[in-house]
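JOB MANIFEST
job_type = single_chain_structure
chain_count = 1
residues = 200
[input]
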Amino acid sequence: MRDEKMIRTAKRLDVCMNIAEKAFYVITALLAVLGVAMAVFKDAFTDYSVTNVPLGVITLTLKEADIVVSENVKSRLIVGIISAMIVLAITCVGIRIIRKILRPMKEGRPFDTSVADSLKKLGWLVLIGGTVEAILKAVSETVILGAYDLSQLINMNAASKVTVSYFFDATFIIFAFVLFLLSHVFRYGEELQRESDETL
């Protein structure tokens, strides 16, 4: 028996995913153009009169724009663009997998063979993508710290050293294991569906 509500919901979700996928492609293309423009017009994107200094979750607002800024400021922007493009690319792959999961559901076949396989692929993508994002975040924060002369921002007579601590958010690991579990549930559902069809 076809579940019309599931079919309608799957179709609506597929339309939303299709729009999101195209939007991500456009954003990725714009970031690529911006990256090329930054490489060609080097000085146009670097403002050496800095008043706001972003340091991770902290932003320092200076009284005067006299802080020494190294050439790494442009590197920070480039690393940010590359990181965003990688995350967007991983997201686009994820959206394609989700649309592959929705395809049989739009036809009223939630326990199709491809659904369990696609859920497993999505789990691996979340696991790999989350790890890549954590690494990119650490690299980006390191480049940010290297872009400014911290001795002008910190009273080095009061501080003996500056230590950088990175926070690793492992939520994506739990989400990946939930997807792996769902993959096994759908695989079992597929076997039950096949046995039911053979009985009929």
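[summary]
The beta strands are 52-55, 58-61.
The chain has a mean pLDDT of 78.
exit_status = 0
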